[in-house]
Amino acid sequence: MNLLVTPAWLAARLQSPDNNPDTIILDATLPPVGVTAPIDTHARYLAQHIPGAIFFDIEDLSDHTTPLPHMLPTAEAFSRSMSSLGIANNATIVIYEQESVFSAPRAWWMLRTMGAENVHILDGGLRAWIEASLPTESGPVHHAPATFHATLNHDAVKNLAQLKAELSANQKQILDARSTARFNGTAPEPRPNLSSGHMPGATSIPFTELVEDGRLKPADKLRELFAAKKIDLHQPITTSCGSGVTAAVIALGLELAGAKDVSLYDGSWAEYAQQPDSIIEKD
After folding, report:
1. Contact present, 240 and 177 (Cβ < 8 Å)
2. What was the pLDDT predicted at 88?
3. 282 inside domain
């Protein structure tokens, strides 16, 4: 299965709806953290989106029983949410975002981790769609309810206890998607009262290094990047970031590069840095 699909591929499916009735398109754009004037990505979706696209609100679809941001909900809650959106397990799901690469991989990871069978990312997102002179529409979109049975893949997600067990075992393949300055402790975290820095033995791979001209780099360049960071794609890898969003960019990049054993630490730095016994290194 091709994880990345082109605007031409998606347009062909939309032009033959009778042959592809199970195609679901999702706009999964989150506003960036730390921007002074908040960006209303839902309003942007309403103003312009790919025909038939549903707004996949990552924040709304996350677990609100915890103060941690963007945490994966329970399988039961996710089942209800996807069913009400009209998303079935066997649907062909195509996810995009409005600008560059930031949050669409998080939606991809959520759906895959909860049992969706056929999930893709639109390479280049809405910008590439528009640049290809393909049509857009405005206003909300609603689909008839479907049946989604979520089954959590426990191997795809790590909690704090599992992360600390890796650290105690001197697990070196923890990849941190935050900026170099936040990783080094020379720039503050965008969330208040959190120290910057990094976990012992973690490797800094800012998610922006995986992006070129508003889209993910091709697989060969991703492999070169991971090799330069001395990452063994044949060994287990855990990804982390500030809140679990851009860690999914790294997870997607690793899968495109051929890694087979990748998990995401869902609490990420927002959880780890709050713990009084957490070791935080700065360099």
Report:
1. yes
2. 95
3. no
Let me know whether 107 and 185 are in one domain: no
Indicate if 124 and 176 belong to the same structural domain: no
Is the Cβ–Cβ distance between 241 and 158 less than 8 Å? Answer: no
Specify the pTM: 0.96
The pLDDT assigned to 21 comes to 73
| Backbone torsion region of residue 86, taken as left when φ is above 0, otherwise alpha when ψ lies between -120 and 50, otherwise beta | left
Are residues 147 and 266 part of one domain? no
Contact between 18 and 33 under an 8 Å Cβ cutoff? The reply is no
> pLDDT by residue (tens digit) across 211-270?
999 999 999 999 999 999 999 999 999 999 999 999 999 999 999 999 999 999 999 999
Domain that holds residue 204: 155-272
CA distance 167 to 162: 9
- Could you give the number of structural domains in the chain? 2
pLDDT surpasses 80 at 200: yes
Q: What is the DSSP string of 127-189?
A: HHHHHTT---B-S--------------GGGEE-HHHHHHHHHTT---EEE-S-HHHHHTSS--
Which listed residue (241, 248, 249, 252) is catalytic?
241
Q: With both helix axes pointing from N to C terminus, report the angle between 104-113 and 247-257 in degrees, rounded to the nearest 10.
A: 70
For the question of residue 241 being annotated catalytic, the response is yes
Which residues on adjacent β-strands are paired with residue 240?
Answer: 176
Of 124, 152, 180, which marks where a domain is finished? 152
